[in-house]
Automatic annotation (TrEMBL):
<protein>
    <recommendedName>
        <fullName>NAD(P)-binding domain-containing protein</fullName>
    </recommendedName>
</protein>
<dbReference type="InterPro" id="IPR036291">
    <property type="entry name" value="NAD(P)-bd_dom_sf"/>
</dbReference>
């Protein structure tokens, strides 16, 4: 199976890439990235093709030709709302994802299994924002809703969303040297809050080895019969899988 990955240089994306590299059923991994992906280079895996792609708002025919035959995508591209303006956050978080889902839906034909687009959202995303809801909660919730609507209207697309919580790579040696430095403040918070979350708030814990495996399996359609249950709900034609739902499916 041929899968697409974005955000491969980030925390979640690195975990997904590791999972994809370990999955023998995957015959090709197409990574869309603005820059070379060191983890992919170091893997020396012939299945990996890094496509340098500078504009995630458009997909020219030559790019789609390189993606031909792909059956699914893990969309792990993202950025913190604290790093960019509101306008840029909406463009990166919402607009890019919707344009990609629309473009990738053309990679499969009517009557075939729909293209599986797995959007990495986040715990706290909401379809009912309140007065004090942060930008990320509103924008990711809007993106989930739009993808659910697209899944209803476009027969060649199944666009589901997953909401990780405390994404934790502390026990994931394979990605340690590749994940971005979160900065002094975030490192300090992880040092203080990490242990109690891992021990006492497990429902909010998203260990990257298992999260990456889940997202990969979801893009491959391998967990379809297990998603329904606590921590997952339908939105339009798509599934929204909360952190507790992901943990349930993976036996955590």
């Amino acid at each position: 199976m041929h899968l697409i990955l974005t955000g491969a240089t980030g925390l979640v994306g690195s975990g997904v890439l590791d999972a994809m590299l370990k999955t023998k059923d995957i015959t090709k991994i197409s990574i869309l990235s603005r820059r070379p992906v060191q983890m992919a280079t170091d893997s020396k895996d012939p299945r990996v093709n890094v496509i340098i792609h500078n504009d995630f708002a458009t997909y020219k025919p030559e790019v789609l030709r390189e993606l031909a035959g792909a059956r699914g995508c893990v969309w792990a591209l993202g950025i913190s709302q604290n790093q960019v303006t509101k306008e840029d956050y909406v463009r990166i978080t919402k607009d890019y994802a919707l344009e990609a889902a629309k473009a990738f839906s053309t990679l499969t034909d009517e009557g075939e299994e729909p293209f599986r687009f797995v959007y990495v959202s986040g715990e706290g995303a909401t379809q009912s924002p309140g007065r004090f809801s942060p930008i990320f909660a509103r924008v990711k919730g809007e993106t989930e809703t739009a993808l659910g609507e697209m899944s209803t209207k476009i027969s060649t697309l199944q666009a589901d969303s997953v909401r990780p919580a405390f994404v934790d790579a502390s026990a994931h040696q394979a990605v340690q040297k590749y994940i971005p430095d979160p900065g002094l403040m975030m490192r300090s918070m992880i040092t203080v809050l990490g242990p109690p979350i891992r021990s006492f708030y497990k429902s909010g814990h998203s260990p990257t080895p298992i999260l990456g495996d889940f997202l990969t399996k979801m893009a491959m359609g391998k967990v379809d019969g297990q998603i329904e249950g606590p921590g997952a709900f339908r939105l339009g034609g798509a599934w929204i899988v909360e952190n507790v739902g992901f943990r349930r499916v993976m036996g955590l």
